[in-house]
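Researcher: Here's a chain I'd like modeled. Treat it as a single chain, no partners, no ligands.
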Amino acid sequence: MLGNRRCPKIPLPKQWPSRVRSGVLHAISLAHFSLTYTRSWAANSFNARLRLKQENDRLRQELALLKEEMRIKDARMLRIPAQSRPHYPPIERLAILELRAARGWSLPRTARHLLVTTATVCSWMGRLDEEGPRAIVRIRQPVN
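Model: Modeled as a single isolated chain. Structure tokens:
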């Protein structure tokens, strides 16, 4: 469970043969193919409204797929105790704080979304002005 929403658990019945499970995956692949074909037709249309609708549909599907991808990754990380999870490197810590500022998230919401503790985010915020190689939060070094 992430936040206040519950992840639905709809397992396939155990007695289903592997062919049925494989069939579900094939049906999803065929649906993807038909959507791709239809969208390609709409993307090349002379009608601007049709092109915008196609782009809107594509972006909504991409958003739904990204949310599902994140749900799967978050579920995996939540099975690992917080102390045993990999730590964010200093550059990613700054990226998290930048994301927090851009989204207007509170400390607890930032922690919940990125699977860290509120105290961790608070610590990063308090140590923003540290300099040198031991700084907990760092900007990316320019290439040249």
